[in-house]
């Protein structure tokens, strides 16, 4: 009677795992999510397709994991003592919107988010979720300091900065720079956060 021995296939981990993630980001930026294949990533990473599938069961899982490995933005926002300083520290440097590798990879998955449910779910939970948490903490801290008006709807304001930057980058072709991020913060975000609440006029209430 033969004895079935356990599989001895090595796990993909450590530096080799990150090399595959890096190759995925490169292929993603070059061809986009729809045209990315496990074969293309395996070739770029000089690995077998079987090696990829031992670690990532689907293309969506591989792409989301690879995007998360870019480590863009701080996991815990720096407390600079002001809303402006916190926003600049979190989003104005190389770990923020001016990270060109991140922006290229991010834009390459945008259209697929409406058609690939697995990608969309993983992307929103693992990639966008932590960034929203950082932004939420920054604004909550500013509210506690008294920097922003107490009636401000943070659910509306928090996405404004990334929304403006991404619109300029993707729609207008204006790549993010530290200066652009600072101008959006100074001319749009801070005035919106600190301006007195508008009082409805008589015509607006009738």
Automatic annotation (TrEMBL):
Residues 37-56 bind DNA. Residues 14-74 form the HTH tetR-type domain. SUPFAM superfamilies: Homeodomain-like (SSF46689), Tetracyclin repressor-like, C-terminal domain (SSF48498). Keywords: DNA-binding, Transcription, Transcription regulation. Pfam families: TetR_C_11, TetR_N. Coiled coil: none annotated. It comes from the Bacteria. This is TetR/AcrR family transcriptional regulator.
């Amino acid at each position: 009677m033969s004895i079935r021995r356990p599989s001895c296939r090595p796990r993909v981990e450590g530096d080799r795992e990150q090399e595959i993630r890096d190759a995925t980001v490169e292929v993603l930026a070059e061809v986009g999510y729809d045209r990315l294949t496990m074969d293309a990533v395996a070739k770029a990473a000089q690995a077998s397709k079987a090696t990829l599938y031992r670690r990532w069961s689907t293309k969506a899982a591989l792409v989301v994991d690879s995007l998360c490995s870019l480590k863009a933005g701080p996991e815990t926002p720096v407390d600079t003592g002001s809303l402006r300083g916190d926003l600049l520290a979190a989003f104005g440097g190389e770990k923020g919107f001016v990270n060109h590798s991140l922006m290229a990879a991010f834009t390459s998955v945008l259209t697929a988010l409406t058609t690939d449910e697995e990608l969309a779910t993983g992307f929103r939970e693992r990639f966008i979720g932590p960034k929203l948490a950082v932004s939420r903490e920054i604004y909550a801290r500013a509210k506690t300091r008294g920097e922003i008006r107490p009636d401000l709807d943070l659910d509306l304001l928090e996405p404004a900065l990334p929304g403006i930057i991404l619109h300029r980058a993707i729609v207008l072709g204006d790549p993010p720079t530290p200066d652009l991020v600072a101008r959006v913060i100074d001319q749009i975000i801070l005035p919106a956060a600190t301006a007195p609440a508008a009082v409805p006029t008589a015509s607006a209430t009738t």
